[in-house]
Amino acid sequence: MDLSGINEELAEIEGQINDILRALSNGFQKLEKIKDASRRSRQLEELTDKMRDCKRLIKDFERLVKEEEATNSRDTIKMLNDRKQSMIKELNSYVALKKQQQSENKRVDLFEGAGAVDNGYEENVMLASSMTNQQLVDHGNHLMDETDQAIERSKQTVQSTINVGAETAAALKAQTEQMSRIVNELDSIHFSIKKASKLVKEIGRQVATDKCIMAMLCLIVIGVIAIIIVKIVNPHNKDIADIPGLAPPVNRRLLWLRD
């Protein structure tokens, strides 16, 4: 089926799917001729990867077909959907072949494993039958000793686990107490910070008050100095009262009045 006239991307995806389907057909034909179990498993893995890629490409094909529904006729869309269903059907046939090959491999492995167990059982029976009664007793005692040792090791492991659990619990308790102390210390630090902040505010207010008082004193001193300077420069100024200690002597004032 030529899809190049409809959509180049659809045609490219269909070509890739056809290549994978041909590769799957050839791969399963080769698989029938492979007798080695490990080689068959590797071949099946490769075929599984190809089927996974084919499934992904069919999904991309389906997505593009849905996008083309608005620009193509119903007959074209039906033809594309039929092609999609054909590819899905062929892929499903290979999936069924894969499941069949996997079930056959499992049966072969099961038969081989059963044979190995039977051989080991026969060897054990032959070994026991060749022993004398004393050897059987000694062997049984040896197995009992090994069992006792295994039980003792298990007890030691359990005791070690209990000890580790107790140490962990003690460590957690100590860490919990330490965290509680840290929280209490943080609360104390927070309280101290609040108290210090309040004290700093009070000190700031006191400093501001002291600054106001100093400013007023400075203004008073400046005023007094200004009056003194004016009195010295212009002693006849009646608008400024005499300041004690700065008035001129009485005799000098009388001489001024005579003049």
Automatic annotation (TrEMBL):
SMART domains: t_SNARE
Pfam family, one: Sec20
Molecular function as annotated in GO: SNAP receptor activity; SNARE binding
GO biological process, one term: vesicle fusion
Parts of the chain that traverse the membrane: 213-233
PROSITE patterns reported in the protein's UniProt record: T_SNARE (PS50192)
Domain of life of the native organism: Eukaryota
Membrane topology (UniProt): Single-pass type IV membrane protein
Family matches, as SUPFAM superfamilies: SNARE fusion complex (SSF58038)
Full protein name: t-SNARE coiled-coil homology domain-containing protein
Origin organism lineage: Eukaryota, Viridiplantae, Streptophyta, Embryophyta, Tracheophyta
